[in-house]
Specification:
It contains three helices and 20 strands. 6% of the residues lie in helices and 44% in strands. The protein has an 18-stranded antiparallel barrel.
């Protein structure tokens, strides 16, 4: 297998003619609209059946990871060369079935989900470092949740008739590019909230006012929300700015001391105590208004307080992030290539003993879209620079070559993983004397719409370790580049 991965690595380097490539991959659209087999059948027989929405989807993904940390296994750490298990292969399967009904002034929607995992060596909840009141859960890995309720909500309102609506119940939340709040669709379980959302919409802007508690997956038990971890805020969007869409938001995350051990066996760690407030905005060019050019700029500042572990005192929060993307599409060239560039920055903590916490809280993101598709990085204490090349060789096919150059924003802070947890084992920690360069990642992804209801997708990534990783792992046997391969199929019914 290692030989095959090396051959694939060489192939990816040849394909990625640009040395560092990065962008968000977008699957190809289906060749024709597909409402689902049940919906098609019902609506063909009865035009009033349009009020109903019955259907679902099945997704299967096989992943191979080499020299990446396996949560819960002793000594396992990203990019470790020797002395611990760092190779993992597993199959993830997700089945969703939904039922919805819409009237003029109200609607209802429910979605069940079965998330299965096979061969995954990761612990469902590693509990490292140990949290009082919780215990390690080996299970079938952090992405297994045999059967549960993903969404179930009720909506009251009709924006064609009245500007105000209310949506309450278990639901996904997704805002902007999902850098701070997203549905996390790449994950085999995904993310939902028990939430109430009031929306005001008129010709000038739309604004959501919401309060939500994140649902905590627990395999073999009915998923409940963590009532000690509350996300609330307002997110407003206006399209009246010439050539641009403008988002402004204020978000509050309030977690008390009980949040971290509210469940004894969650699939992933719960938050430390914090009252963090995020104020920010995003400007994005409207499609076609700038010719072949496009861009997105977003920035946010955080204040408040947080505790860095279960028992520590709260520190003053003073952190920020900034991201910028720009691209040019060669509309008249074969495959309509888009060449893009991106820079992402999130602050780190410069001094753990000064009473101030400078690490940005990534909140509830879909990080798989950004900072490298291998899911090694979160928007915390990071600098990311890259370019991307995306192609559409046929209407049914999308190809993307992506990559990153990555540094720590501050070496007096940790190197955080994709979940937002600091790396603290295997030589990692606060290594202020190390060089800040983490390494570079190259990724190639291709997707094809086989039919209007079926798609296939393949991807490969290679992470080249940098000086920070080499210096951190020197005392534990050295470092090694990481590889990742996946094959995914999806079927809508």
């Amino acid at each position: 297998m290692k030989t095959n991965l090396k051959l694939l690595s060489a192939g990816a380097l040849v394909l990625a003619a640009l040395e560092h490539v990065h962008a968000q991959y977008a699957p190809p659209p289906p060749p024709a609209p597909f409402p689902g087999f049940l919906n098609e059948s019902m609506r063909a027989k009865d035009p009033y059946a349009n009020q109903w929405d019955l259907g679902g989807d099945i997704r299967g993904r096989y992943e191979i990871k080499e020299h990446e940390a396996i949560a819960g296994q002793s000594g396992s750490a990203d990019f470790r060369a020797h002395g611990a298990n760092v190779d993992n292969q597993y199959l993830l399967t997700r089945i969703r079935f939904h039922a919805g009904y819409t009237e003029k002034w109200w609607s209802a929607y429910a979605e069940g989900q079965s998330s299965l995992a096979g061969g995954d060596h990761r612990a469902a909840y590693a509990n490292v470092p140990a949290i009082a009141g919780t215990s390690k859960k080996v299970g079938y890995g952090p992405e297994s949740d045999t059967i549960d309720l993903h969404q179930a909500y009720f909506t009251v309102g009709n924006h064609k008739e009245f500007p105000l609506s209310l949506k309450f119940g278990r639901q996904e939340l997704s805002y902007g590019d999902e850098r701070l709040i997203g549905a996390f669709g790449w994950n085999n379980i995904g993310r939902s909230f028990d939430s109430a959302k009031l929306r005001w919409q008129n010709a000038w802007f739309g604004a959501d006012f919401f309060s939500a508690m994140p649902v905590v997956p627990r395999d073999g038990q009915f998923d409940l929300s963590n009532e000690h971890d509350v996300l609330s805020g307002v997110y407003a969007t206006s399209t009246k700015i010439p050539n641009n869409t403008l988002d402004v938001y204020f978000l509050a995350r309030n977690a008390d001391r009980q949040a971290i051990n509210n469940f004894s066996d969650p699939q992933f760690p719960q938050p430390t105590a914090r009252d963090i407030y995020t104020v920010g905005g995003r400007v994005k060019s409207k499609p076609g208004t700038l010719g072949n050019w496009d861009y997105t700029v977003e920035g946010a500042y955080q204040f408040g307080n947080m505790a860095t572990n279960a028992t520590s005192v709260r520190l003053k929060q003073d952190a920020y992030m900034f991201t910028a993307q720009a691209g040019y599409t060669f509309a008249d060239a074969w495959a309509t290539p888009r060449l893009g560039a991106e820079f992402d920055y999130s602050s780190g903590d410069s001094n753990p003993n000064d009473g101030t916490h400078g690490t940005f809280d990534n909140l509830f993101p879909t990080n798989h879209k950004f900072y490298g598709s291998m899911d090694l990085i979160s928007l915390q204490n990071i600098e990311d620079a890259g370019i991307s090349l995306t192609l559409k060789p046929t209407p049914r096919m999308s190809v993307a070559f992506m990559g990153n150059l990555l540094w720590l924003a501050n070496t007096h802070d940790y190197f955080y993983n994709v979940t937002g947890a600091p790396r603290t084992t295997g030589g990692y920690g606060i290594n202020s004397g190390n060089d800040s360069f983490l390494g570079s990642e190259l990724t190639a992804i291709a997707g094809y719409a086989i039919t209007r209801y079926a798609q296939v997708e393949v991807g490969y990534g290679h992470f080249f370790t940098g000086d920070y990783v080499r210096q951190s792992l020197a005392s534990t046997g050295g470092d090694h580049d990481a590889d990742w391969i996946y094959v995914q199929t999806s079927l809508k019914f």
